[in-house]
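<discrete_fold_record>
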Amino acid sequence: GVFLYNHLQQKVRNAEALAQKYKQQQEALSAQLQVVYEHRSRLERSLQKERGEHKKTKEDFLVYKLEAQEALNKEKQDSMNRYGALSSQHKILKNQHDDVKKQLLDLQLQHNSLKLEHRKTLESHSQKYAQLQQEKDSEVTNLQDTVFKLREESKLLRKAHQEVHSQLLNAQAQMEEFRQLKEALQKMPGLR
């Protein structure tokens, strides 16, 4: 009976030790499980925060994209308006250039005509003067009057010639100015 009693006590002690061991393991596992739960809770909060930030970032990106598209459309419209204005101005300047070119051509023809007429008049006057000098030595006074009149007429012709020449120079300067303006317009990026 003593032996059986001792044997049962030994089994009880072993069972208590085993129970104590299991209890310690359970406490350790509970502590680990608590750490895992806390870590999971932190991860869920972090994930929720990341989702909120991602949603806000996505909304901000959509707003930015819309604003950028509107700005691009506005810039495109402004560029088209500027191009239209420059194109109209270019047409006007081209028409003005053609008009000045035609006017210059007319002035050149008029200048050549007046130059030829002036030369013919001078030749005619010289011939008349020589003929009158040879034929009418006795009429020096009348001849001097005639020469004076011819010289006055020559002055008027020279004056007219100078005026036409001045107009020609002005027209050439204006045409050069329009040529430079046309080159400047052709160098502008909008017109290319």
Q: What stands out?
A: The chain has a mean pLDDT of 92.
